[in-house]
Amino acid sequence: TIIHIAEGPYSDFFTLYLFYIFAAGVFYNYVLAICIAMAAGFFYGVYLYLCQNGILVPLILDWGEQIPIESHSPAYHFFFFIVFTGLMVYAVKVASFFSQKRERMLETRNKELSALAQMSSSIRSTISIEQVLDQILRGLESGLDFSLPLLILFDHETRKVELAASPAHPLVRKVKVLL
User: Fold this and answer.
1) pTM of the predicted model as reported, rounded to 2 decimal places
2) Residue-wise burial string across 71-98, b where 16 or more C-beta atoms lie within 10 A, e elsewhere
3) How does pLDDT run across 58-76, given as a tens digit for each residue?
């Protein structure tokens, strides 16, 4: 309606469609932005076709000699619309990609922090060193996505080095059989 009231096919208000596309992409996702862009392009093209063939007469008031000279033809407006729509959808897609990437990074970080908090609470609550080592190894496996965490323990009194590993891992079971 705004385009039809404001100079019809010669109106520069076709850019309002870009705001709809942007809002759909930002508040929902780029797939909806593409759908809205295609629908807007179709309806804007039909509107320009109807105006050019005289089926739909624009509501341009007769202002005599004061009507501004048209800057671009409807074909140029449609071309600009297609180019700007493509750029807008691409920009929304890129923004969506980076938003999803940031969200995945935050989820990973949250998982790591949760595992560290769980290990910390187990250290504070248990007295047995075996239970603490078991909790730490499980936390490293689940929270930090380590496939085989190993802890090297240095005993300063006996001057020995001990190795702690998760007993449930198949590689640890194979090594224990060999020893």
Assistant:
1) 0.55
2) eeebeebbeebeebbeebbebbeeebee
3) 666 555 555 555 566 778 8
Number of residues assigned to the chain? 179
| Rg (alpha carbons) of the chain, rounded to whole number | 33
Amino acid at 54: G
User: What is the spatial distance between Cα 15 and Cα 97, in angstroms, rounded to a whole number?
Assistant: 25
Whole-angstrom Cα distance, residue 128 to residue 92?
54
Instruction: Say how far apart CA 115 and CA 133 lie, in whole Å.
Output: 14
Evaluate whether 41 touches 82 at the Cβ level (below 8 Å): yes
Structural contact between residues 118 and 143, judged by C-beta atoms closer than 8 angstroms: yes
Other CB atoms within a 10 A radius of the CB of residue 46 amount to 11
Q: What span, in angstroms and rounded, lies between the C-alpha atoms of 179 and 170? A: 15
CB 112 within 8 A of CB 144: yes
Q: What is the tens place of the pLDDT at every residue in 129-176? A: 777 777 777 777 777 777 777 778 888 888 888 777 777 777 777 766
